[in-house]
Amino acid sequence: MTAVLVPLVVLLPLLGAAGALILGRHRRAQMAVSLGVLAAVTVIAAVLLVSVDANGPAVVYVGGWDAPWGITLVVDRLSAIMLVISAIMLLVVLVYSVGQGIADQHRETPVSIFHPSYLILSAGVFNAFIAGDLFNLYVGFEILLSASYVLLTLGGTGERIRAGVTYIIVSLVSSLFFLSAIALVYGATGTVNIAQLSVRLAELPGEVQLMLHLLLLIAFGIKAAVFPLSFWLPDSYPTAPAPVTAVFAGLLTKVGVYAIIRTETVIFTESDVTVLLMVIGGLTMLIGILGALTQADIKRLLSFTLVSHIGYMIFGIALGTQLGYTATIYYVVHHITVQTTLFLTTGLIERFGGATSINRLAGLLKASPLLGVLFFIPALNLGGIPPFSGFLGKTGLFLAGGEEAAADPANAWLVWIVIAAGAITSLITLYALTRFWNMAFWRGRRELEGYESVLLGSVLEAPEGATVTATRTTPVLMVVATSALVMLTVCLTVFAGPLFELTGRAAADLLDAGAYVSTVFPGGIR
């Protein structure tokens, strides 16, 4: 019975997008369709999570064609966790965007375009998480690309068009690598089914495995924005409307991380790139956060912290242990929630204060204490202050690293270097966010004119120069949606024990590739 629900997580958003497009002239009906569809998908995802956690993975062979001939959809614990957190984020951000649209007469997010594109984006995200073969995963990425470009260029301003062009060029390059890798994989093995590849790739020469492995890692690394493939992100995300930026920052890079996890745990179990991933993880942390230090605009600052914190996830994947994957999955959930929350809060700051640069903001705490709280809690969380989920996730990763260093003395020095990089990154993240807090919230409004501080000595405005916007009203729906996500970030701390147990079971599944293979191919795969 549960298997019947699996295709609905993709079908409902696609049908909803068609319905929203038909209802383009009826704004309320269109918004009701979008909200109803994502609410339904959230419930379905929760049911799937409970079911697969109790009964094992759910597998659907589309059209009745058994694998590997047909399209296979697979939901295991990791897929279900990603579906649930993604559906929640998409639903809450949609509520936020509805509130913003009503207040601004839909200038930033015109319903006739925004809602269909948003639902198509959702379908692409969900499809990527349940894809059982590489080509279907590629289809999910392409659905994301088509919808993302529309959402990124909403409003048609020159700045957004330039950012959209950069984004689509980079995405097309990533897709080219991915499609080339799929063609080579199929040519070498005769299949693109992930479970079947687990066996057939292991039979290839090591050099061939490594070449295919690196091609896929490049494609997924661009999607995940890992160093040195992350150059495009800080200039692309900050230009979009607040709801779009929040979804992009919270979810899209995690689709790339998810693909890397599948690659490392199922497809290339015999090809070891641990040292490469470890180095990339450490460099992604440090280069990203050093970029954040120089930013005066909070949207660009958060974009650089987004890049840096992807490094923690790559580090956890590189460890390849159950504790490493347990902490990585927990950290992915934490980061999706906290990063989305911070970008939504930034949208509130821009509306309330009229700008997003610390050179132009002051006195926000006195003017709006609630806004101060909504920014302060997730900022501390992202910085890794105890007892928040950011601290718990990083501690889990560092403990996993310590265990791996003890088990593998040959690479222990590299593990400890990356752990040190992670600790430094966390401290710099906290510094960068508290600097913004001090300038924008704590500093008095009267001090803004001619204000000088060592905290501002090294920061730079965004390219092209950020413009000061008129202060606008802050709709209740925007505040409610942001507050709900702040509460969810707190819940990740309060219920960290059960969540770590769940991610631990998901990690155990990942390390048992044979169970995944036998589930997708009950009768054997040869």
TrEMBL record:
It is a multi-pass membrane protein. Keywords: Cell membrane, Membrane, Transmembrane, Transmembrane helix. The keyword NADP does not apply. NCBIfam families: PRK12665.1. One of its GO terms (cellular component) is plasma membrane. This is Multisubunit sodium/proton antiporter, MrpD subunit. Belongs to the CPA3 antiporters (TC 2.A.63) subunit D family. PANTHER family: NA(+)_H(+) ANTIPORTER SUBUNIT D1 (PTHR42703:SF1), NADH DEHYDROGENASE (PTHR42703). The chain crosses the membrane at residues 6-24, 31-52, 78-99, 111-131, 137-155, 167-188, 208-233, 240-261, 273-294, 301-323, 329-349, 370-393, 413-433, 476-500. It comes from Agromyces cerinus subsp. cerinus. It comes from the Bacteria. The lineage of its organism: Bacteria, Bacillati, Actinomycetota, Actinomycetes, Micrococcales. Its main location: membrane. The keyword S-adenosyl-L-methionine does not apply. Residues 131-400 form the NADH:quinone oxidoreductase/Mrp antiporter transmembrane domain. GO terms for molecular function: NADH dehydrogenase (ubiquinone) activity. One of its GO terms (biological process) is ATP synthesis coupled electron transport. It is found in: Cell membrane; Membrane.
